[in-house]
Design goal:
The protein starts with a strand and ends with a strand. The strands form two sheets. Strands 2, 4, 5, 6, 9, 10 and 11 form a seven-stranded mixed beta sheet that branches. The protein is globular and about 45 Å long. The chain is mostly beta strands. About 0% of the residues lie in helices and about 55% in strands. The protein is built from no helices and eleven strands. Strand 9 and strand 10 form a beta hairpin.
Amino acid sequence: QVQLVESGGGLVQAGGSLQLSCVGSENHSRLRLIGWYRQAPGSQRELVANLDSDGAPNYADSVKGRFTISRDSAKNTMYLQMDNLKPEDTAVYYCKAELRWFGRHERWGQGTQVTVSS
């Protein structure tokens, strides 16, 4: 069974940093780690950052210049470095992957809570 496991969330003061990790249970050729999303209470899930087909990063305007997405395919791991965190960054963060097996299928992690205090 394909699994995505996120870690690294927690409570941090405004201006602080956290690094999220997402580890996939399959190798990169089969399970492509492609992006981070977040969902705040009462809000829809939104894109934070992703990696396009060439591996180039894209960011939501709200996190540009503060967050950095990266991927280590050899370790089946994707990261989200979050700096200068703001209270409005508080949300559950999810990693998203694409399973390539008889087609392409979305897979999501269980989420990790990030709380930024003012």
